[in-house]
Model the fold of this input.
Amino acid sequence: VRKLANDKGVDLSLVPATGKGGRITKEDLLNYVAAPPPLSAEVPPTPLMGDIVSSPMVTTIPTAHIWNTSPTSQVGAGTADDTIVPIKGIAKVMVKTMSAAQQVPRFTFHDEYSMDKLVQLKKILKEVGQEQKTKLTFMPL
Done:
């Protein structure tokens, strides 16, 4: 659904969801593309974090200076109503270890071998193996 929406240039937050658990189905997207609602219709915001948003530990901060809010950028564009939820417990440890894993240098090594002589040798030894009723393969046992 996300790829189709991206291909059609549709903002999924404007598409009314009829799927299980408030999910947007492919049919919802196709119906929206066929007949989009008028621009004056206002879509009520839905909280993505549920009860977490109303938690007293959540701090609301203005984030307009942090995120790129240019009209051409849709990813990472924040608003003044954004909230920061502190990460605690195992999630905090997981973030720390995954961040450390990204700092590990990556190294890839490739080797190429010419197997022509080995293939010729196998053909010769295969006849000897058939006489002794032994199957010969390239894989070691």
Residues 46-55, 60-75 have pLDDT under 50 and may be disordered. The radius of gyration is 29 Å. The CA atoms of residues 51 and 93 lie 23 Å apart. The first strand starts at residue 59 and ends at 60.
